[in-house]
């Protein structure tokens, strides 16, 4: 690199020497995900962006028929029944789980394709 | 409901009358995603569970080469430069965007496969 002449009369970066504008001159029209769609998608992602809800999804998913009794879900999490019920309700409200009462116990099942549909929307961004 | 005899000697629900155990007797071993893995995955999901960051991902993704100048990203979002910079930094720190300084402007590019890898971990739950 020694011996390469340095021009002190031209302290600007190469982009300017070559006549390229310093100002931002976008040549491409930017397509942003519309604000409301982004808000809806973010809210749906926040449903699964929670460690307890991810664990619940993994537990129900590991059960035969991807369905589990609430009585099988509470103890392994080491959380109170009220806390687990709250997270289960969020997952039901989001359409990720269904809830079915059978006698004493409620059973929760994964809605086929619900998580995949959400992930697919992000993948398509 | 009037006229239906009420047994005061058997106040238990039907499940008990029929001999079915009230206690939860899980027949299946439940495999929950380990707590620490769930916390890490949830934190990574929170990065994309934000409307502005989803919009930034969609904008950069729509640019040729999936790379865009910061000067093209700020104005369409209608947010201050500081706010956009914050969100861009979160995306860089999470390994979703790379940042390259070229003269005056910084350029942000999608890391190939980064979002897909995150989505794939959720899909595999």
TrEMBL record, chains A, B:
Pfam families, sorted: HTH_5 (PF01022)
Domain of life: Bacteria
InterPro entries: ArsR-like_HTH, ArsR_HTH, HTH_ArsR_DNA-bd_dom, HTH_MetalResp_TranReg, WH-like_DNA-bd_sf, WH_DNA-bd_sf
Keywords: DNA-binding, Transcription, Transcription regulation
GO MF entries: DNA binding; DNA-binding transcription factor activity
Domain HTH arsR-type: start-end pairs: 33-125
PANTHER family, per database record: ARSENICAL RESISTANCE OPERON REPRESSOR, TRANSCRIPTIONAL REGULATOR, ARSR FAMILY
Protein name: Transcriptional regulator
Organism in which the protein naturally occurs: Mycetocola tolaasinivorans
Lineage of origin: Bacteria, Bacillati, Actinomycetota, Actinomycetes, Micrococcales
């Amino acid at each position: 690199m020694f011996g390469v002449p340095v021009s002190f009369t031209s302290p600007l970066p190469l982009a300017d020497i070559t006549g390229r504008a310093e100002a931002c001159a976008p040549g491409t029209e930017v397509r942003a995900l519309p604000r409301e769609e982004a808000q809806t998608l973010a809210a749906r992602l926040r449903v699964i962006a929670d460690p307890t809800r991810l664990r619940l999804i993994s537990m129900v998913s590991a059960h035969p028929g991807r369905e589990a009794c609430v009585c099988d879900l509470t103890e392994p999490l080491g959380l109170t029944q009220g806390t687990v019920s709250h997270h289960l309700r969020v997952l039901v409200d989001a359409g990720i789980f269904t809830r079915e009462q059978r006698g004493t116990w409620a059973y929760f099942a994964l809605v086929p394709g619900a998580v995949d549909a959400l992930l697919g929307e992000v993948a398509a961004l």
